[in-house]
Amino acid sequence: MDINELVHNYLDDMEAALRADDAAQRTLLILDAFREFKNNVINLVGGNSEYEVEQAPKVDLGMPFGFADSRYVRGKNGWLAASLYKKAEEDGLKPFAVPLASMDLSILPFRCKNMDDFLWHMKRCMAADTNIPIIYDDYGQVADGNHRVARAIIEGKRYIMAYRLKNMPPIDYTEEEEND
Q1: Domain check: are 81 and 107 in the same one?
Q2: 52 and 111 share a domain?
Q3: Same domain? 72 vs 37
Q4: 173 contact partners, CB below 8 Å, separation of at least 6
Q5: Mind listing the pLDDT tens digit of every residue in the chain (180 residues)?
Q6: Closest to 136 (Cα-Cα) out of 175, 91, 95, 75
Q7: pTM over 0.70, yes/no
Q8: Domains in the chain: how many in total?
């Protein structure tokens, strides 16, 4: 089995997991799919003596990431994560615990067109600080923190802290401005 087949199998398993009727079942299926994928990759690379992992070059994803890169788009309107957190602070909002079992796992918050996109999001999940509260927009959708939610679920946590905005801050940009 090669890496492309592993990724396709993993994405098929994730798609099947998202179709599960029950949130707890979806979470378990996602965790199982991730563990199987991780073990298969380890076996593929580490279990084959023709590879010398220490001498293999690192894959550069070419994209630094951080808080300044986080954005939320709803329709054609966009906000920087910093603006959302500033609004929560200005409004004096207090974080509250959200059961991860209540998260809607049928929504795919990331666009993954290829392996590079997939790896970039996986790296963000692995680097996510689950101690930072996520932000719900004024409609109750996750506006910032999907990578933190993914990491918390993978790590088997039961809750994540969150803010819920009562109203949105001024728009930071529109999709038309971003595309110009």
Answers
A1: yes
A2: no
A3: no
A4: 78
A5: 667 777 777 777 777 777 777 777 777 777 777 778 777 776 776 655 444 445 555 555 555 556 666 888 888 999 999 999 999 999 999 999 999 999 888 877 777 788 888 887 788 888 888 999 999 999 999 999 998 999 999 999 999 999 999 999 999 999 776 555
A6: 95
A7: no
A8: 2
Identify any residues that bridge with 71 across adjacent strands, giving them in sequence order: 80
- 59 secondary structure, DSSP code: P
Regarding whether 131 and 49 lie in a shared domain, the answer is no
Distances from the Cα of 140 to the Cα of 19, 137, 170, angstroms: 22, 5, 18
- 159 and 72 together in one domain: yes
Is 178 found in the same domain as 99? Answer: yes
User: 36 and 86 share a domain?
Assistant: no
Burial of 70 (0-12, 13-18, 19+ CB in 10 A): buried
Q: Token pair 């979470």 is at which residue?
A: 27
